[in-house]
Fold these 4 entries.
Entry 1:
Amino acid sequence: MSAAVADAIERLDTLAGERGVELRADVPLAPLTTLRVGGSADRLATPATIDELVSVIGVARDAGVPAFLLGKGSDIVVADAGIRGLVVRVRADAATIDGTTLIAEAGASMTALAKRCAEAGLAGFDWAISIPGSVGGAVWANAGAHGGEMAQVVREVEVLGADGERARLRPEESAFAYRESRFKHGDEIILGATIGLERGEPAAIRALVNAHQALRRTTQPLADQNAGSVFRNPPDDHAGRLVEAAGLKGHRLGSARVSELHANFIVTDRGGRAADVRALGDHMRSTVADRFGVELRYEIEFVGAWPEPSE
């Protein structure tokens, strides 16, 4: 740890103590992600309410320490060296249903909400059963599955701005696109979302949810350590088809391999290395580019203290 980082962490610890914010030091992050690789966080906070989340972010900003928000730990690869600064594990997960409107905090589970909406006879959110993350992460990435995505149902996003003020954004202000939103490119913190749905028959919605779950179990390596889809689908094609056509199903680099069940998934051994995952992903990209002239874009995010690329 550099002297500058050490000084910032010391300021963070001091401010947290003064403001009653609980922090844990040198916390392993691998157990908090679905891929189960990566190093530790310098500091970890686990706010259980939105007010606590706002307080934690305020401490980090005042201390000049970067804060990385962690939801359910899917769709990310944490560097073997871990994440410098503060990791905020969001656990504010309250959710209410008012008529056909679902209001959910950032830490609410997408799969749990999909089941709850089905029981309540709310249609249009069945696809969320296949999103293993939280509402905050789903809004951030405009997550989707089975032809549905967050952009179709989000009516309002509550954020904490860089100025410390809370605001509500309309869908058109959120710049949703395929696996994209404005939140990937700014300092706003997603606090929650308002989701608009429609009335439907609970039995029919449950049947859709069950069908999505059954398809996911038979086509994705859920029993293996994975971070979800590695690449975004290119226009008019599927990343998994291209990787498989390149002959890479089952290909291994160190502790990581391309899933034999679905070629757009990388799975890892117990005690695996994040560096192996990145090296394998880059090999998949370059092979597909060489064979088919298609540049695959990562859907998973590589976060933390990765080495600088060599010249």
Note: The mean pLDDT is 96.
Entry 2:
Amino acid sequence: MAQIARRESVALGTVEVRPGRIGSIVGTVASYFLLVLLVVIIGMPILWMLSASVKTLPEIYTFPPVWIPPHLRWANYSDAWSMAPFGRFYVNTAIMTFFGTAAKLFNGITSAYALTYLRFPKRDLVFLVVLAALMIPPQVTILPNYLTLGSLNWINTYPALILPEAGIAFGTFLLRQHFLTIPREILEAARVDGAGHLRILWQVVLPLSQPILVTLLLLTAVGRWNDFLWPLIATTTMEMRTLPVGIAFLLDQEGNTQWGQVMAATVMVVIPLLVLFLWTQRYLVEGIAAGALKG
């Protein structure tokens, strides 16, 4: 009996179950249950969007809801595409997202590198100013940005969609905190080999920062792609509108909105983001695995 107590186990026939293992099993089951619950909570709206995009209006208002309609109405997609110039909306949104994301990443990477590795007066004060910018709501800057662009005659142009959102205080803070975790010995070895700042940034710092860069890329691209308020204010013609603004044109203010077409247009907006996530996920996982092996 003393030997059994020391082993702290329970014998069930020929199967020995340790108390620690029971706790691990319970924790695993609870984790999977919460994960499934989270997937259901997040996935239900997406499933409803996909289902409603191929339904007629009476089927959408049917209660209890029918998740898979007996007849799929694919015409909702062609109707939504023809109700507004979605081809032009796609081009405008792609241009704004690509160049806006590139500008944000460039500014975030260079400013974070300077605040981490360059020595200049009042460096900590500059970083505090960057942190203070995080506390300013973006809505506060709309009027100054609009007046500035108006004085330059840039309203309803691509620079108006891209330049005011090029600053990235959050990305600067995020990258700086990550750059501080890179061992100084690696950078010193690169300097001994004759590498300058640009070479160190391109060949040393950025490859070691792949997971955080991919994360920042996703956050920035999603934010730019889904931006609604600023493109609505900065553009005045239908030819310069973006996808989120275009979906708003499908909403009928008198209550006669064709929700099948609206959901179909929403699916067309979401699909590029899903493709981007699936593409960047591989690099994110590879970067995390490489970091774990190097550690």
Note: The radius of gyration is 26 Å.
Entry 3:
Amino acid sequence: MTWTDHLQADPLPWLLEESGPAVRAAALQGLLDRPADDPQVRAARRAAMAADPIRAILAAQDPAGWWVKPGPGYGPKYTGTVWQLISLDQLGADPAHPQVARACDYVLSWGPTSSGGFGCSSAAREAAPAPSSVLHCLNGNLLRAVIGFGRLDDERVQAAVEWAARAITGHGVERWYASGTSGPAFACAANEGLPCAWGALKELNALARVPAGRRSPLVQRAIDAGVDFLFSRDPLVADYPMGYGNTKPNGSWFKPGFPLGYVSDVLQTLEVLAQLGHVRDERLVGALRWLESLQDADGRWRNRHAYNGKTWVNFETQGAPSKWVTLRACTVLRAAYS
């Protein structure tokens, strides 16, 4: 059997429709192994930059590089600066486009804290956030985006990678903050000081983009620790530590969607573990079967968490068959069953 035998029908012609150029470009590369300089990929990328949602996002950008208001840009959700950079990366925007490059420059100017990690701040002023505002979810999301946009060699990006590795392992951290990342092993103030699975997934999603040959021993230890944490629970049960009296995981965990903000889901767990080479682990058999069960008769998955009405333009329709979620699912199945 091949991975396509796990599909109810072939969604590839749908994913490759020219009416959705961003998805088309991603599918050409992710499912058909076309290189970035392939003429069809390049044409789709060009078309995507001129079509929504990328077009709407860039149209709302201030010439200085920010959205809504100057500053670190965590708020408002989900129209502020950091969310646009995260979304542009997920949409496969062109790193060389002047507005994308300007957004990266702006975030790298005002997002890093003195600790090295990216801080969560909605202040409307151009000043670095406090080190007590660093959380794994935002640091991971932004770190993945700027690495994807070719900024890995920037010293500020390297500092964020280093912060992530030290925060995960606890190595060399002199102080924890009650209002932010509150300890090693993904402990987070937003989860009453307990390890946070959402934060773990975002941080590992970022570190997975650091090429294996460029990972320091500390970064590799952090990745290994994160993988162990994810495998400490069945992702279908998702009984990771829950603070503030919660006894059930957030319902969004079982609703694969797009775009991906700070919320995570079972599908992202599979995506991250696939990137790190663990998706064929027998402990994921149940989660893979669950993923397969969500497709319809046309081999398509629905967008169950679409952020409709919260972004500059709706990316897709809540509850409708989703090209982006289908692409996410197919990428995982291909990694698991090829």
Note: The chain has a mean pLDDT of 97.
Entry 4:
Amino acid sequence: MAHSPGSRLASIDIIRGAVMVLMAIDHVRVYSGLPGGGPTPGIFLTRWVTHFCAPAFVFLAGTSAFFYGQKHRDLSRFLLTRGAWLVLLELTVIRVSWTFNLDFAHYMLAGVIWMIGWCMILLAVLVKLPIRAVGAIGLLIIAGHNLLDSRFFQLASTMPEHGLGWLWTILYFGFFAEPVQLGAGGPPLIVLYSIVPWIGVMAAGYAFGTILTADPARRRRLCLGIGLSATALFVVLRGLNLYGDPSPWGGTPDGADGRPAMPALLAFLNPSKYPASLNFLLMTLGPTIALIPVLESARGKLAEWLSVFGRVPFFFYLLHIPLIHALALLVSKVRLGAVSPWLFTNHPMGNPPAPDGYTWGLGLLYAVWALAIVLLYFACRRYADVKARRSDGWLRYL
């Protein structure tokens, strides 16, 4: 029996919930003062497990768009308005949640919600095409954008001459480019997540919705086949440094860049995220897709908890940043006797190093994360119940 577009797949809610829970680890790390990705294996893996979040979140946002379109005729309009809403929230509410300051004149962040918003706006156009074409475009962008890395760098060097450097930053270079200046004398916009290749991920996720409507046996077979094949392709491409990442994983010799070389296994598991390389997406999306059929029969308290978060992921997102930030203020007060001014600077990008004596250990990081998850569970369960009982149009946007 095929999956009905009007029903929910428990495995998707569980995966979305797991994504939100893992994402919170990295956002607690932001306020812990610990660096992302090193220098110890423990800190590296604390960051690494969260790499699965953005790809799964964007991919399943495309899948959710597919299921919305199966039940409503206004898919393009919904994607356009929701996308614009997400961009607005990123630049206002979410920006204040990260920083707890109103210094808009010197700092703006285009983070993951900004990127998802613009991808939804672009998807609003793409969904006018046949679904196979949308999927093909998505896969072409994911698989092919690293072919053009050198060409992209050449274009990036010439576009500022024509006043278009800002566009290239937003489209592709993001984090590694200069901030975008918003108007003459306007605030700098730090672009953390560029549009390419994420629009490809969302488009592929949209087409993936057709697989989830197949009968259970076929759905499981396809998910396992796609997921395990993507993971195996990552191992081959990354292992042999054949293609799919601008940075080979051999690492730098000890002392070549002023730091010890990264251990081989950690370097292998560290493909480029900004912008997301093919290898990064294969490493993260492959296991995520393969897990879908495995989790279809998941039961128990843990599955129930994760499903609650997975039913209201954006509500979770909006709450978790100010909550974690507030808990960091409390930790600072308890440990240092005062709230560190560092917690009111411009998180998470462009922030100065944490002051001496502030940085947490991993044990404290995970304790604060666990407390935040427990507190968020009760709020998300209440909101999920409201969404289940009511059909107000505004609920679709939160």
Note: The CA atoms of residues 89 and 343 lie 21 Å apart.
